[in-house]
Amino acid sequence: MENTAVREVNESSLNKALIAVFVCFGLNGLVFASWAARIPAAAQDLGIGAAGVGLLLLFSAIGSVAALPLAGSVAQRIGTAGTVRAGGITTSAASLAIAAGLYLGSIPLTGAGLLVFGVGIAGWDVAMNLEGADVERRLGRNIMPRFHGAFSAGSFTGAMIGALLSFAGVSLSLHLLAILTVVCVIVLIVPRNFLQLPHQPEGAPGGAAPGPVSRFGAWREGRTLLIGVVVLGAALTEGAANDWVAKATVDGLGTTESVGAVMFAVFVAAMTLTRWFGAKLIDRMGRVRALRICMSASLAGLLLFVLAPNLWMAGTGAVLWGIGAALGFPMGMSAAGEDPAHAPARISVVSTIGYTAFFLGPPVLGFLGELWGVRNALLVVGVAMLVSIVFAPAAAERKPVSETT
What we know:
One of its GO terms (molecular function) is transmembrane transporter activity. It is a multi-pass membrane protein. InterPro entries: MFS (IPR011701), MFS_dom (IPR020846), MFS_trans_sf (IPR036259), MFS_Transporter (IPR051788). It is found in: Cell membrane. Keywords: Membrane, Transmembrane, Transmembrane helix. There is one protein chain. By secondary structure, the chain is mostly helical. It has one domain: MFS general substrate transporter like domains (Growth Hormone, Chain: A, Up-down Bundle), CATH 1.20.1250. It is built from 15 helices and no strands. The radius of gyration is 20 Å and the shape is globular. 60% of the residues are buried.
């Protein structure tokens, strides 16, 4: 009778954690897209071109890349819930600075806000992926793509809100102020349902559990680094689309800012649906085949988007690009988080490698876009896609040590 009660409580806690992780992923996507979908508006407010936008994005990249290697250790110290809260509040404060910078037309203030924005997003992201990996292990089935689908759904919602507000003539500053108010409230409440200790191993049969890998030790693991390389290509694929699809549509096809935001929303919608239903594809094919099929589709979509002579063909390319970009990052997180004893260090390493591309790639594309045009610069992403296809076997399924000893 006592054992049944314990099992019921555990199932209830797991279900609450499952919902909480979904909400945190969705909210993170909403915050990110609130900025990404209206990058053309920011460029107009500040009077800058593609290179200037690339420089601004570099500030966000520096903040994230600096914070990511430490995020796993922070989550071990204050818990995933505390880290998500800290990241959400930091991101909200940064959004306030960005809004003020755009209102005043100040590039330095906007850049400083984006630097802090990158720090907050990085900590929040690693913590929710750690919590998500723990929930996935306990459920015993692939659920990480759906968590990332919640991020994409939040991004889609943010992009559509951005398109509507742009059409209505609402300033980006006011838009960001409204978003940060919502974030501050939700991010303080929802993480209380987290399981809190994803870094603690369940315990191997016989009572022994392997000790955790240090955050520096994980950087010496060949498989972890190769998973990071796979995620690097997937992250650059997604990040380039997040930051440049809207502007590439406006500049390359001569459309309005609202149409650019809708094109970004089309990409995100395709990615969201694939993440929601793609877990079955992974179960059926395994990670390696699923990765290779997805990255190949993404490469085809990228080429079609860049070379399309009209809006409708570009939209078809954006759909294929979104479908292909959907599963690489979540599969990498699942692969890195398979062993609960090693998950914090390995997810931190893989996230750092992936987000280096996610955040640093788009600014570089901005500088190249100034020379070649934004759509042509996106062809560089195709090289990273090919690298991910080659190294996909590194993400093959393995059982944790605690389950095999």
